[in-house]
Amino acid sequence: MEEEKKLGAVLLTGLMIGPILGSGIVLLPPIVYETVGDWAIFAWGSMMLVSFFFAFLFGKLSLQFPGDAGVANAVEFAFGKHIKRLTALYLIFAVCFGPVALMTVAAQYLHPSQQMPLELIGFCLLIVGTLLLLKNVTSVGRIAFIVSTVIVVILFFSSIYSLAVFPKTNLFVTPFSLTKFGYSLLLLFWTLVGWEIIGNYSAEIRDPARTIPKAVIYSATTIMLVSMTIAAGIQWIDSNAFNITQVSVTMIIFPIFGRLSALLMGIITAALCMCTYILIVGGVSRLIASQAEENFLPEIFGKRSKNNVPVFALLALVSIHSLICLAVYLDILTLEKIVATANGFFLANALCGILASIRIFSNKFIRIMAALLAVLFLIILFFSSLWILITISILTLYFFWKQRSSQIKSKVVTLETEVISN
How crowded is the C-beta side of 375, counted as CA atoms within 13 Å? Predict the structure, then answer.
């Protein structure tokens, strides 16, 4: 019975596709096209290749180091207990901020009344997401699988149909700009966020050795196909043929759904944001519980419901999200600052996992590709604001000092033991 409550390859794939596509598949294609023009398709292709390796790398780490702590387990093996805690804190801090911006994006597409604050709609969506997360993980997986399947079918086949019926005649007219192309890659980094959460569910996956590789292949392939067809649709569909001047993903589905397109895109965006919320917040609540069980965080966060949901960790995250929603409503925080903060900590967490993989794996190809990813992510991290960089630097120095002190203490104890024995 316990095995039946765990995720198989299909449900894990469903849990991954929607969240990793996320709101980015709606927001990024028009932004990237407006940035780099007809070279956008090559930017998408480049980032999809990076995404494939990123997914493979974190899938492999999750498989080799299972448990609720996810990639942090691999970091502990590579660098020690204190660096594991640092990695966990980076992801926890990121998820204290990111979901608020995510739900606000969803609220913008579901804004029923100009008199109702976006923050209030976002808060209501947070509550809905929390109620879903209180369910058994397989139930959440089924919901995510159904939603992801419907969205993928709509977006993929709408893109194919619109490209076939309303193609542009001039495919490449924009001159190439290295600066703009590089900036478009920076924007597309956010298509990678989500893969590093896989490991936090590994304790609830049936036969991880078979399930995780299959799910990574299925979801990475699906995400690549959908992303590339939408990117192609944005730049190669002649929207003038049906009188749409604004570049957006809505124009891709308009030839099939007509006047219902705006409403449908609102529902799709909200559903994708909700899927992302479920994957990330659910995964990080398990990470918090694992850290409580290791006595790094208060013990109460380790308590779980009968569905194996870390209830107090989840409620702590939701409480923080609610306070941040209030801060945005009162103009104490802006969405831009929230996104920048979350992005900085997400990058720092991913860097820890990538650096750990360089130390853990002996395969030269994996190590070279991981090193290239590390350089790329480090460059992107330096685009963060100064205070985020200072915070990350202080945390890093402190935990590296703790790790170094622990190693020195361990060596001293070992030497004393050897002296006594002799």
Answer: 5
Tokens (6 digits) for 235: 């730049």
Measured in Å, how far apart are the chain's first and last C-alpha atoms? Answer: 55
pLDDT band at 228 (very low <50, low <70, confident <90, very high): very high
Enumerate long-range contacts of 356-363, CB under 8 Å, 24 or more apart: 356/61, 356/71, 356/74, 356/75, 356/77, 356/78, 356/79, 357/57, 357/60, 357/61, 357/74, 357/78, 359/78, 359/79, 360/61, 360/64, 360/74, 360/77, 360/78, 361/60
**Dihedrals φ, ψ of 384, to 5°?**
-70, 165
Q: Is 18:147 a contact under the CB 8 Å cutoff?
A: yes
**Phi and psi torsions of 303, nearest 5°:** -75, 140
Residue 366 to residue 256: CA distance in whole angstroms: 43
Report the range out of 12-16, 206-210, 283-287 with the highest average pLDDT: 283-287
Domain layout of the chain by residue ranges: 3-384
297-326, pLDDT tens digit by residue? Answer: 888 998 888 877 889 999 999 999 989 888
Residue type, 19: P
Q: Rounded to whole angstroms, how far apart are CA atoms 336 and 298?
A: 31
8 A C-beta contact, residue 49 and residue 252: no
Nearest Cα neighbor of 314 from 326, 324, 299, 303 is 303
CATH 2.40.50.100 fits 3-384, yes or no: no
